[in-house]
Amino acid sequence: MKRPYSLFLKFIWVGLFILSNTSLASLTFKEAIDLAFQNNEDVLIQKERIQKAHYTHKKAQAAHYPTLTGSSSLTRSRAETSITETYSTTKTYGVTLATDLYSGNATNLAVKQAIVKKKQGHTSLKQIKLGLLRKLRESFARALYAQKYVKLSRRILKRKRENYDFFRLRYPGGLEPLWAFKQAKTEYKEAKWELREAKKDKELTLKTLYLHMGLPFPEKNRLSLKGNFKLFKLPSLKDLKGRVSLKHLDLKYQNQDIEWKNKAIGIKQAGFLPTLGMSSSYSISQTNSGDETKTLSGSLSLSWNLFSGLQTSNAVKEARADLIITKRTLKKIKRARLDNLERTYRLHSKARTRTTFTLLKFKAARERAMVVQQEYSAGLQSYLSWESSQNNWTQKEIVHLQALRDTWTTLAQLEEAVGSFNQGGKEVFGEP
Question: Distance between CA atoms of 263 and 60, rounded to whole angstroms?
Fold first, then answer.
């Protein structure tokens, strides 16, 4: 009853979320993570695999328990002579109890293997969540950028409209040239087109975000994202390398695989050892003549595979070779993860530095545009100087916004490169 109940709750949750989209005011990054971890299909599939591994473990444990078998039979026979013909009926009822006393430790090792598989299942779930966290941060950053760009496009349109109205009033009186009026009109139309495109881009980025959250995209979406492109204190590269060596999920999974294959060698080696089993049975036989026979028996069985055509020996060698491959793969993965960490750390550091410079340039362009606007109103600056300062201000703001977005996307790559994960994505960089 557990599975149907959990599915019911999921459907209720998804339904409520979809229905509430018409009135949902905002969505934080933390809320997006929670929704994704509850509804993303890859996460749900892996949870089912963990459940499957749990039952595999229980099945392996069952080999320790004895088996009890019940049986019954009915036998009818006919005996014929030259004089008589007789019939006899025999009914037999019985139970048999059997258990393995020793199997070369193969049963214990199989149970331990199943436990390791459960651990690997949980590690894989964290790997999936870590990859999903990267996709969420990237898609959230792009959607947040698109949302902010729509707001910026509205401000630009408002300013271009005011410019167009300004020239429309001054041109007829000969205060502004015809080319300046036409340019202001063209820029106003272009700004309206830019706003329409920005809205389309915002919708596309939100669709991607909904996809990663495992939710259908509503036809009427009034959802807005809540948050800013925060910059967290960045740990040193040395510190992050230490975390990779100790906590990287890929390395953890490989170490668990080594543990599993060590036990696989033991299971194969058990083929060299004898097996000991015990069984006991009790039966009652009844005939139609009224005779009754009760039988109680017990037995011990010892078997030893003295020669198997070198199958067991080669199976052990095969398992050992597989273990060596896994250990060497672990070393290879570790080197690759450290190399990837250095690369992504550099990319993110460059993105952070670029954000600082673009902010300074944006502020400077804004201050200059305000000064030139005042001078232009006083007749101290030409139209071209005024227009250039306005466009430079806009461009620098867009570039800074793009730099903030890129900082978040490179942060997502760095989080995945570190490879450690805590529920909510708080392991390395804190809650955004």
Answer: 14
| DSSP bridge pairs for 283 | 94, 295
Query: 62, exposed or middle or buried, with CB in 10 Å at 0-12, 13-18, 19+?
Result: exposed
301 phi and psi angles, rounded to 5 deg: -125, 130
Query: E strand or H helix at 86, and its extent?
Result: strand 85-102
In a domain, 89, yes or no: no
Q: Residue 319 and residue 270: Cα distance in Å, rounded?
A: 13
220 burial via Cβ count (<10 Å: 0-12, 13-18, 19+): exposed
**β-pair type (275-287, 292-303):** antiparallel
Structural domain span for residue 55: 26-63+105-273+318-418
pLDDT tens, residue by residue, 101-152: 888 888 899 999 999 999 999 999 999 999 999 999 999 999 999 999 999 9
pLDDT in tens, 16-74: 444 444 344 688 898 999 999 999 999 999 999 999 999 999 999 988 889 889 988 88
Q: Where are the beta strands (DSSP E) in 162-315?
A: 224-225, 275-287, 292-303
CATH code (residue 37)? 1.20.1600.10
Domain for residue 258, yes or no?
yes
Token pair belonging to 336: 């690759």
How far is residue 60's CA from residue 108's CA, in Å, rounded to a whole number? 9
- Number of domains composing the chain: 1
What DSSP element (H or E) covers 55? helix 41-61
- Type of residue numbered 249: L
Yes or no: say if 399 and 409 are a contact pair by the CB < 8 Å rule: no
CA distance linking residue 203 with residue 53, whole number of Å: 40
d(CA 113, CA 314): 21
400 sits in which H/E element: helix 383-418
Contacts of 333 (CB under 8 A, 6+ apart): 250, 251, 254
Is the residue at 10 inside a domain? no
Query: Is residue 83 assigned to a domain?
Result: no
